[in-house]
Structure formats: structure tokens, C-alpha cells
Amino acid sequence: PGPAAAGRFPTEGEFLDQLDSRIRVVVRKRPMNRKEMDRKEMDIAECCNWDQVQINEPKVKVDLTKYTEHHQFMFDQVFDEETNNQEVYFYTARPLVSGIFSGGHATCFAYGQTGAGKTFTMMGRDGIYVLAAKDIFTMLTRPEYQHLQAEVAFFEIYGGKLFDLLNKRKRLWAREDAKGTVCIAGLREEVVADCDRLMRIIDYGLTSRSVGATGVNADSSRSHAILQITLRAAGDPSRRIHGRISFIDLAGSERAADTMDTNRQTRMEGAEINKSLLALKECIRALDKKSGHTPFRGSKLTMVLKDSFVGNAQTVMIANISPNSLSCENTLNTLRYADRVKEIQSRKVPGRGRPNMDKANKLDQLPPMGEPQEPR
Ligand code: ADP
Ligand code: MG
């Protein structure tokens, strides 16, 4: 790895400033892997600062002289290859957790090319959903929240169809009622109270991910996996949602380009992924602009996540990138997509105000990071 970037993380004040925003877009670079190093590939992704990344694209002129084209991007935050999941969690999903207790919807997306680290970030052994769940279970032990329970659902969108990963990959349908509420009929939701149980449920779900009805093992890079943790009052017959956090491990962004593939099935899947990633971008942009119209009907993905795009919702998108030169084009595409999800207003104003104490107090309500968690 190269020299550590100047400021790897924002100061407390800089971080708290960002939390005013309903949508945050961050980038995470994974380390070079053994194969890439053995092939003597170059690391072309340079994390210049806690909010800046530069791609050094190797190019060749017609006369065969080599040169480098530099592409700079600015995001709410950029995590270099040394950053671990705890740190990513601290700056991304953790601030959302207190929000769902005060009754809101929070969504955390992992976007990027296959192999860039989406699953590692989200669903890995110490992935951010586990860290979020730990905080949620701890919060639930507090007197003011003891009437609530956490219910988990895990499903997949593959080729525009919904499949329940906790129920033998049963096909499901999303319905929108007269009031505009979208629900997935028959989706299995399991009450969970500790991380061991949650992890067993996820492991079980992952075994049935993308195994087609024909029994042929399809490629999980072509599906979106959605894990939802919903807070509800225990025993409430109306099953009203108190708060919900969704973690989405999106299909590989490079699959959106498969629309020209010679194989009909691949081409159709690519078109579906392309459609959903475009609709997702539009919905998040609408949330950012607080515009009245959210085009959530644009795809199955945005339709089932409708509540994430309206009202009191908070969203974080983690754009995962690979560092190696062979991935350059996909990396640039990922960064351009992430850039358009949220146009960062010129934030480089010198002498910012004081940290927003309201937000700081909210975060303080969460259990401190690394505190041992009592089983309930
Ligand atoms: P994706 O889900 O985007 O296709 P994965 O999460 O499966 O990618 O990551 C591809 C490989 O890279 C995996 O072997 C994973 O363990 C490894 N990897 C990804 N991100 C990191 C990271 N930040 N640090 C170490 N290894 C990583
Ligand atoms: Mg994956």
C-alpha cells in the first residue's frame, strides 16, 4: 500500500456537519489482492484526502507514448484500503441507527463492480449489518425501547423478480395498496434478539441466494440482496412499522452493460439491472432535492424500497471500487454514477461553524463502539 493519505478521516466537526444531509455518498477502495500483485498490476486509485479520490488512468497515444490521465472526485467521504469495517460502519450506517429508533427509514446501499468489496462491506463476518444489528440489540434493552422488537427479512431481486431467501427462495409479489403503501405479500420476517441468531439466519439465506428454480446455480452478481431489520411493537396486531433499516448488496454494476450480450438470458438480466440502477439513482436524487415526485415505480428495486425514498428517510450509498489498472473503466463508471447520485455542493468553505450538537447528542445515545454487548 502507498503512503497513508493526509487526513484519513474527517474531524468531528466536519463529520457532524455532514449528518445534516439526508443522503450521503461515500467511496471505499479495497486493497490490491495477491493475484493483481502477482500480475504486477498498478494501483491506480489514490485516496488523496478523507473526501477525495483520484484515478490515475494509464493511457497510450497513437504514437504509442504512454501517459496518465488524472480524474478527481469528491464525495462525502472516501475510505482507503487500510480502513476496516468498524471504521466504515462508524461513519456510514451507525448514524442511521439512532434515526430508526425515533421512527424513520434508513437505507444503506453497496454499489460497485463485482469483486470490489460490496459483500465484504455489507454481509461479511464483521460486515456493517452485523455491527448495526449489535447496536440495535443493545438499544432494545433500554427501558424506553423495551416494547419494541427487531424482525429480520432477507430477500433477493433477480431478473426483476422477488425471492424470499428465508423461505426456500419462494417467489414473492410486491403490492401497492390504495394508500400507496408497498408491501411484499408473504415475506417471511423472523424475530431476532441477538447477533448469533441473526448470523445463522443470514448464513441460511445466503445458501439459497441466486439458485434458480431450475436448480442451476446462477451468479449472485446478477441479483440485489436486501436485508431488512424492522422495529415493531411486540404483539401489535396492526404490525405498524416503527422504524426500519435496509442493507442492500446491489448487483454488480458492470452487469448493467450486458445489454448487448449475445446470450438472451444474460442480455435480459443486464437490461433489468441497468433499469434498476438508473431508477435507484433517480430516486435518491429526488430524495436529495426533497422534490415531491419520486420515480419509485421505475423498477422492482425502487418499488420495494419506496419508503426509503419518501418522508423521514436517510440514505447512505457506499460505492466500492477495485484499485487495479484492469478495473479502471469500471472504477470510473462507479465513481461517475456515485457522483451523479449526489452532486456535492462546494463544501470547501473555510471556517465552518461549530459541530451540530443536536446530531452529536443523538450519536451519543448509541452504545460506544467496541463496548461488549450483553445478550438479551
Ligand atoms: P463483491 O461483493 O463486490 O463482488 P466481495 O465483497 O466478494 O466483492 O470482494 C471480493 C474479494 O475481495 C473477496 O475475497 C473479499 O474478501 C476481498 N475484499 C473486498 N474488500 C476487501 C477489503 N476492504 N479488505 C480486504 N479484502 C477485501
Ligand atoms: Mg458480492
UniProtKB/TrEMBL annotation:
One of its GO terms (biological process) is microtubule depolymerization. It comes from Carpediemonas membranifera. One of its GO terms (cellular component) is spindle. Belongs to the TRAFAC class myosin-kinesin ATPase superfamily. Kinesin family. KIN-13 subfamily. Interacts with PLK. The keyword Cytoplasm applies. It is found in: Chromosome, Centromere, Kinetochore; Cytoplasm, Cytoskeleton, Flagellum axoneme; Cytoplasm, Cytoskeleton, Flagellum basal body; Cytoplasm, Cytoskeleton, Spindle. Involved in cell cycle. Involved in formation of flagella, regulation of flagellar length, and formation of median bodies during interphase. Regulates flagellar length in all eight distal flagellar tips by promoting disassembly of the microtubules. Disassembles microtubules at the distal flagellar tips in a length-dependent manner in order to maintain different equilibrium lengths of the four flagellar pairs. Regulates interphase and mitotic microtubule dynamics. Regulates microtubule disassembly dynamics of the dual mitotic spindles and the median body. Signal peptide: none annotated. It comes from the Eukaryota. ATP binds at residues 112-119. This is Kinesin-like protein. Residues 22-344 form the Kinesin motor domain. Residues 345-376 are annotated as: Disordered. Coiled coil: none annotated.
